[in-house]
Amino acid sequence: MQGTDHRRDPLTGASTVVVGSRQGRPNLPSGDCPFCPGGLEAPEPYDVRWFVNRWPSMPDDRCEIVLYTPDHDAELWSLGRDGARRVVDLWAERTAALGARDDVGYVLVFENRGEQVGATIRHPHGQIYAFEEVPPVPLAELVDGFLEPSWVADELVVHESGDWMSWVPEAAVWPYELRLAPRSQVGSLTDEDCDRDGFAALLVDATARLDQLFDEPMPYLFWIHQRPTDGGDWPGARLHAHLHPLLRRPGTARYVASAEVGSGVFFNPVPPEEAAAQLRALPGAPT
Asked: Are strands 164-167 and 157-161 parallel, antiparallel or unpaired?
């Protein structure tokens, strides 16, 4: 892959990968969906599917696309627990395969949902990036962070499913932000004691509540943090997911402004306790 250049800002320490080759990638193609069965990326029927991204941000087949369903008009919550479980299982399978590579130190599963957050194809899908080293954000959580779901205040809890629970963080940056994690000490999707059924059911519930909140599909950013695959000793690694919805009220996005970017201090217009109460009052979705 040509045009990849990893740089670090000497003032802020920010890490940036400059990828000139991605400038030419297609945006919101108007023709047939490449992710539907028979399309460019899915020539055969499938339930779930993964393939190497044609427009990768990193070289050596370390960027993948994951298709959640052959149904172009489905939502993650509409797959139900069984459908979502197939997605979770594929995430775990790809985490194991990519993490076993000598040139991969961290596997990040993520999804950008909605045009407002940069999704270029409507078909339900996510992505996986396999980093050579542990990226700064998960590394900061591993070194300085602390996650203990059992200590979350009751008024912040939204739902529980099996070993998993969802809640609005006490210091949420995004209105209606959710965090999902198992109560037990599970480090990765690949761990034998990971309750994948519980995770799948909680994903269905969380995404359904967000779509019901303003009676419209909620654009969001979603990612999973888990144990690095660099061979290091990470006893404090704890599997969890971040779900950041874009809207703060119907049709109105929550924008991160200059004062926030420039200071690193964020201003949330929706009290987390109120956000949790609103989400908790919604029925979720049958699993």
From this structure: antiparallel
CATH no. of 30-281 = 3.30.428.10
2 pLDDT tier (thresholds 50, 70, 90): low
Active site residues: 125
Burial of 123 (0-12, 13-18, 19+ CB in 10 A): buried
Q: Is the pTM higher than 0.90? A: yes
Within the chain, where are the H helices?
A: 80-99, 136-144, 196-213, 258-263, 272-281
**Whole-angstrom Cα distance, residue 175 to residue 249?**
9
Rounded mean pLDDT, 193-213: 97
Helix axes 196-213, 272-281, angle to 10 degrees: 100
CB-based contact 200:85 (threshold 8 Å): yes
Structure token digits, residue 66: 């994951």
